[in-house]
Design the sequence.
C-alpha cells in the first residue's frame, strides 16, 4: 500500500512502550524485532499504533538495528505521528522516503505502460492520417 507523501497529516503523540523482542528459529537462527507502541489523538479521538515506518527491510533483523530503533523511540518520548486523514488509525512515525525504493519500483511499472500508450497513440494517428491521404 503506497500513499503520496502529501496525503499524510501530522499530530503529536507519545511512545507508550518500546522494547526488543527476539525468537529462535532452527532454520534462520536468532531474529530480533523492535516493538514500538505509541498513542496519538485526531479530532479528540485517541488512537494506538505500532507501525514505525514503511521503509523497513524485512531481512534486517540484527540486534544492533533493533536496539537503534528502541533507543531512537524510548518509552515516554514525544513524537510526531504521520496519519492518513481519511483513515486516522493508519499511522507511522517516519514519513515515507520519496527517493526510496518503493516510488522507483512504482515508476518502473507505470512508465512502460505510459510509453506504450503514447507509442500506440502515435502509431494509430499515423495510420489514420495515411488512410485519409489514400482516399
Sequence:
Amino acid at each position: 500500500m503506497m500513499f503520496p507523501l502529501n496525503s499524510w497529516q501530522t499530530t503529536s503523540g507519545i511512545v507508550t512502550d518500546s522494547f526488543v523482542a527476539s525468537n529462535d528459529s532452527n532454520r534462520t537462527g536468532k531474529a530480533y524485532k523492535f516493538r514500538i507502541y505509541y498513542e496519538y489523538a485526531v479530532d479528540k479521538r485517541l488512537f494506538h499504533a505500532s507501525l514505525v515506518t514503511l521503509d523497513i527491510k524485512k531481512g534486517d533483523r540484527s540486534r544492533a538495528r533493533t536496539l537503534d530503533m528502541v533507543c531512537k523511540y524510548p518509552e515516554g518520548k514525544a513524537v510526531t505521528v504521520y496519519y492518513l486523514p481519511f483513515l486516522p488509525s493508519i499511522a507511522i512515525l517516519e514519513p515515507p522516503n520519496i527517493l526510496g525504493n518503493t516510488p522507483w519500483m512504482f515508476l518502473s511499472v507505470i512508465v512502460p505502460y505510459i510509453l506504450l500508450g503514447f507509442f500506440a497513440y502515435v502509431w494509430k494517428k499515423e495510420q489514420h492520417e495515411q488512410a485519409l491521404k489514400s482516399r
